[in-house]
UniProtKB/TrEMBL annotation, chain A:
The chain crosses the membrane at residues 12-32, 84-106, 118-139, 145-167, 204-229, 249-270. One of its GO terms (cellular component) is plasma membrane. Its main location: membrane. The keyword Transport applies. Pfam families: BPD_transp_1. CDD domains: TM_PBP2. It comes from the Bacteria. It is found in: Cell membrane. InterPro entries: BP-dep_ABC_trans_perm (IPR050901), MetI-like (IPR000515), MetI-like_sf (IPR035906). Residues 80-270 form the ABC transmembrane type-1 domain. This is Carbohydrate ABC transporter permease. It comes from Pelagibius litoralis. PANTHER family: INNER MEMBRANE ABC TRANSPORTER PERMEASE PROTEIN YCJP, MALTOSE TRANSPORT SYSTEM PERMEASE-RELATED. It is a multi-pass membrane protein.
UniProtKB/TrEMBL annotation, chain B:
The keyword Heme does not apply. Residues 80-292 form the ABC transmembrane type-1 domain. InterPro entries: MetI-like, MetI-like_sf, Sugar_ABC_transporter. Its main location: membrane. This is Sugar ABC transporter permease. The chain crosses the membrane at residues 20-48, 84-105, 117-137, 166-190, 211-230, 275-293. PROSITE patterns: ABC_TM1. It is a multi-pass membrane protein. Pfam families: BPD_transp_1 (PF00528). It is found in: Cell membrane. It comes from Pelagibius litoralis. PANTHER family: GLUCOSE IMPORT SYSTEM PERMEASE PROTEIN GLCT, TREHALOSE TRANSPORT SYSTEM PERMEASE PROTEIN SUGA. GO terms for cellular component: plasma membrane.
From TrEMBL, chain C:
It comes from the Bacteria. Pfam families: ABC_tran, OB_MalK. Keywords: ATP-binding, Cell membrane, Membrane, Nucleotide-binding, Translocase, Transport. Residues 4-234 form the ABC transporter domain. This is ABC transporter ATP-binding protein. It comes from Pelagibius litoralis. GO terms for molecular function: ABC-type transporter activity; ATP binding; ATP hydrolysis activity. SUPFAM superfamilies: MOP-like, P-loop containing nucleoside triphosphate hydrolases. InterPro entries: AAA+_ATPase, ABC_transporter-like_ATP-bd, ABC_transpr_MalK/UgpC-like, Mo/tungstate-bd_C_term_dom, NA-bd_OB-fold, OB_MalK-like, P-loop_NTPase. The keyword Transmembrane does not apply. Signal peptide: none annotated.
Length: 285, 307, 370
């Protein structure tokens, strides 16, 4: 394997460079764009030489955009806040519901447990609109329309299967004897769960939580159907922003950068667990 | 070591029976699960109705009529064709690319690991936002890709806004976002393969191209199958990228199932047809997901066995 | 310290019956060995007692109280697991202290209690280490210390020496009887090693196929095994088993080996004419110069430290092992004659594989196999 001809080495190098270029360039370019004024963006031919400016970011953060034409309000910070709230809330709920259930499925093969676990999993693969469209009508009727609670509940469609199946694997990897030993030593079921099962599955729970957060953050369709303007996360908000701001390309780029930065940062932080999480535990990283 | 009095364990006020406990623990998740089944069955019900939000007076059961209408509905056949084309093209191309990249990065070195981590970034970008990024890059006024296209002799390359190139453009975005998914799964698979067969083959002087076809590929098949099915399930339901980039247009070029159903619901307000479309998509994904789950479970057992 | 009584315990997993109506009693302060091949249900039985597994049928009582509905934490049991089951995220100290924290001891008392039991097991110097930093022997002692820490009335030891090396096993086999005696607890000790069983047990319960095949003192099990299987499990080298048909004449009951008379216990009259298996312990055989001895051909000799084992073959090509203390003289090779002690010969029914007990004066001593 190691004895490569120089030609082969060269080809590999070129192929790898092309791969890196293709996958990294869009992010690189959008970051560059976010640091430019509209004038430099619209130059032709495009050039890498420009004076970087943070005006676009400042405009978004302060919520005020003053151009020579008019003054405009930007509500994009609101979208960012919504994304944080929705993603964090969904993950918290999913952990609260999913971790005990994952434990039950891992430890007690009770009647119907596999069926329930699979039903939950199958939600992950069903067309989301199938559930979302009727829900959009129901939500109006039961007053959940345009509430965070309603959205967080629907976000469980993404978060819950993920947490259930990853954390279940981690619980299954803990020897039941450890828990037996702790209980026989005199501890209640609850304290055994807290002192033995939870800490030992800790890394898995953290990884699943992080991934669930990323998936919730990146979700588009749920909020597009169910949320009105003031509850929209960045994914939907950015699209609206493009329509509303028209030709303020620098701000659009800055908004996109702000929207993708958190998930990219989390992904790099949790990259050790990504493979396992993305495949729902089918492949160990 | 201890006196009799303090060998007893403090009793708690209640203790949960071993038989009830698992049900109790999974009950909350179960309730959420059941609550999600309600809209599902509602959708089934809608699909059997004549139901337009704009004509509430005209609502009523029409049983299979929505489905029967599809048979003579060119829009439906277009949707089916576009969805399948999109799904198979994306998965096929991503598989080839992903496998190629995984093979390039197979050897564990600092550089390879770094690159494989960097390649995760597109995958972690929200697909809707990725579509916006590409929309900016293909902007006719300042888009860098439009500029490149012009330099290469296509001054009027219109990317997503021309029916001829719209599919190509969304494919590019889909490939950009999801190739890393297939790549990291196959990379993990490649790296978990036992080394003995390769060493033996190398000793026997088997050329590397043949090693790939005879050893690598067969051993990698479960991973390839799982990754492809996983992607196929997602891809046939693709919404975010297409909606954010072209809203299914231009015309009906990219009217895949979910986009068509979404527009049916919110623009034409034809709930019945929308629900029937989604039911058909659901049937397709249901069969795919059954095959997928079988493969996935097998792989999961294996991964857990190795751990 | 209470008596532990197990009545008619039955446990099934899916369609497989793992325990099939097991009943026995462990008297106060006694150590009972649960002996059997792997898969016999020993571990499951222990788990039923500890409360980690719920039996389908049967009762378990401690000191007369039914504990079937008592959760594991209130059974007052100490248990050491075969795989140690040390909590990997806690230090050895916290592992050993876990039964004491459950009993809400004060910090000082816990400190004192852990140190005391650690000293007893000679692991005082590794208390601050996590399990992964311990050697196998230290892990095993930590697991034992944890089981003993709260001075439980019932102590369950699941093959604690299985996963430690031979030298350590030997040391612990010497150390454990004193340790268990000091505890005064009622002990059930699971093992697959017959020497461990003989060395540690007041009584041995032999479990086979989910049932108690025999229960008795080590002496009982060895001298009067209930079946061919049990006879084979106890003893090293393994007991010699020869197909015979006992006969009777004026001289009493006997059988033939290579046309030589092997006298049998006179109480075995009932076995005459039946297809039987003769069980001869290698150490119950000896070389002899007597012309009545059975002629054999010496095949091979294997010297061990404390004994020498010789493989001989009879005229009918039946292989027999003979064991004698190391250093005692014996014919080196060629032909020789061997002699059997009638009182040591065991007779089993070939069809049922059960031992045929000698009948003296109306039944004699009860040796019933459960």
């Amino acid at each position: 394997m190691d004895h490569m001809s120089p030609v082969e080495k060269g080809l590999r190098g070129i192929a790898l460079s092309a791969v890196v270029l293709f996958f990294m360039f869009p992010i690189f370019w959008i970051v560059l764009m976010s640091l430019q004024t509209n004038e430099t963006i619209l130059r032709s031919p495009p050039s890498m030489v420009f004076e970087p400016t943070f005006r676009n970011y400042i405009a978004i953060v302060t919520g005020k955009l003053d151009s020579n034409v008019a003054s405009m309000d930007i509500t994009f910070m609101r979208n960012l806040w919504n994304s944080i709230l929705l993603s964090a809330g969904s993950v918290a709920v999913a952990l609260l519901l999913g971790v005990p259930a994952a434990y039950a499925f891992a430890r007690h093969k009770f009647r119907g447990s596999e069926e329930v676990a699979f039903t939950l999993l199958s939600f992950r693969f069903a067309p989301p609109l199938l559930v979302l469209l009727p829900l959009s009508l129901y939500f109006q009727q039961i007053g959940l329309a345009n509430t965070y609670i309603g959205l967080i509940w629907v976000y469980q469609l993404i978060c819950l299967p993920l947490i259930l199946w990853i954390v279940r694997g981690y619980f299954e990897d803990i020897s039941p004897d450890l828990e037996h030993a702790y209980r026989i030593a005199g501890h209640s079921w609850l304290s055994t769960f807290r002192r033995i099962a939870l800490p030992l599955a800790g890394p898995g729970i953290a990884a699943a939580g992080l991934l669930a957060f990323i998936f919730a953050w990146n979700n588009f369709i749920f909020a597009l159907v169910l949320a009105s303007a003031d509850k929209q996360p960045v994914t939907v908000g950015a699209l609206a922003f493009v329509t509303a701001s028209g030709i303020q390309y620098g701000q659009i780029a800055a908004a996109i950068v702000l929207s993708i930065a958190p998930t990219l940062a989390l992904a790099l932080y949790a990259q050790r667990y990504l493979v396992e999480g993305l495949s729902l535990g089918a492949v160990k990283g | 070591m201890a006196t009799a009095s303090d060998t007893s364990i403090p009793r708690r006020r209640f203790s949960v029976s071993r038989r009830v406990l698992p049900y109790l623990l999974s009950l909350p998740a179960l309730l959420v699960c059941i609550a999600i089944l309600v809209p599902f069955f509602t959708a089934v019900f809608y699909s059997l109705q004549r139901f337009r939000l704009s004509q509430p007076w005209n609502r009523g059961m029409n049983w299979g009529e929505n489905y029967l209408n599809f048979l003579s509905d060119p829009d439906f056949w277009n949707t089916l064709q576009v969805s399948l084309t999109y799904a198979f093209l994306t998965v096929g191309l991503e598989l080839l690319l992903g496998l190629g990249i995984a093979l390039l990065l197979k050897k564990r070195s600092r550089l390879n690991n770094f690159i494989s981590i960097m390649l995760l970034m597109p995958l972690m970008t929200a697909p809707a936002l990725a579509a916006l990024m590409w929309k900016l890059m293909t902007n006719p006024n300042f888009g860098i890709l439009s500029y490149f296209a012009a330099q290469l002799g296509f001054p009027d390359f219109r990317w997503g806004s021309s029916p001829d190139t719209a599919l190509f453009t969304v494919l590019l975005v889909d490939i950009w976002v999801y190739t890393p998914f297939i790549m990291i799964l196959l990379l993990a698979g490649l790296r978990s393969l036992p080394t003995q067969p390769f060493e033996a083959a190398a000793l026997d002087g088997v050329p590397r191209v043949q090693q790939f076809w005879r050893i690598t590929l067969p051993m990698l098949t479960p991973y390839i199958l799982t990754a492809s099915l996983f992607r196929l399930l997602d891809s046939i339901q693709q919404f975010d990228i297409i909606y954010a980039l072209t809203q299914g247009g231009p015309g009906d070029t990219l009217m895949v199932f979910q986009v068509e159903a979404y527009l049916n619901f919110f623009q034409s307000m034809n709930v019945g047809r929308s629900a029937a479309l989604l039911m058909i998509l659901w049937v397709i994904t249901y069969f795919l997901s059954n095959i997928f789950i079988k493969n996935w479970l097998r792989l999961r057992e294996r991964a857990r066995g190795e751990a | 310290m209470p008596e532990l009584r197990i009545e008619n315990l039955t446990k099934r997993f899916k369609n497989e019956t793992v325990l099939d109506g097991v009943s026995f009693t462990v008297a106060e302060g006694e150590t009972t060995i649960l002996f059997g091949p792997s898969g016999a249900g020993k571990t499951v039985l222990l788990r039923c007692i500890a409360g980690a597994v719920d039996p389908e049928e049967g009762r378990i009582t401690i000191g007369g109280n039914d504990i079937s509905d008592v959760p594991p934490e209130h059974r007052g049991i100490g248990m050491a697991f075969q795989n140690f089951a040390l909590f990997p995220h806690m230090t050895a100290f916290d592992n050993i202290a876990s039964p004491l924290t459950a009993r809400r001891w004060s910090r000082e008392k816990i400190q004192e209690g852990v140190e005391q039991v650690a000293k007893l097991l000679k692991i005082g110097h590794v208390l601050s280490h996590p399990p992964r930093a311990l050697s196998n022997g230290q892990k095993q002692r930590t697991a034992l210390a944890r089981a003993l820490a709260a001075s439980p009335e019932i102590l369950l030891l699941d093959d604690p020496l299985r996963n430690v090396d031979a030298k350590l096993r030997f040391e612990m086999r010497l150390e454990l009887p004193r340790l268990l005696a000091d505890q005064g607890a009622t002990v059930i000790y699971v093992t697959q090693d017959y020497k461990e069983a003989m060395a540690l047990g007041d009584r041995i319960a032999v479990l086979s196929g989910g049932r108690i095949a025999q229960i008795g003192t080590p002496e009982d099990i060895y001298r009067r095994p209930a079946s061919v299987e049990i006879a084979r499990h106890f003893g090293d080298p393994t007991i010699n088993l020869l197909d015979v048909v006992p006969e009777k004449d004026g001289g009493g009951v006997f059988t033939r080996l290579s046309d030589q008379r092997v006298p049998l216990d006179s109480g075995l009259e009932a076995a005459v004419g039946r297809d039987c298996v003769l069980g001869l312990r290698p150490e119950a055989l000896r070389f002899s110069d007597s012309p009545d001895g059975i002629p054999v051909e010496i095949e091979a000799e294997t010297p061990f430290n404390e004994k020498t084992v010789t493989l001989v073959v009879t005229a009918r090509k039946r292989e027999i092992l003979i064991s004698r203390p190391a250093g005692t003289a014996a014919p080196g090779s060629g032909t020789a004659r061997i002699e059997v002690d009638a009182t040591d010969a065991l007779l089993f029914d070939r069809a049922t594989q059960e031992r045929i007990a000698p009948q003296h004066r109306g039944g004699g001593k009860s040796e019933a196999a459960a």
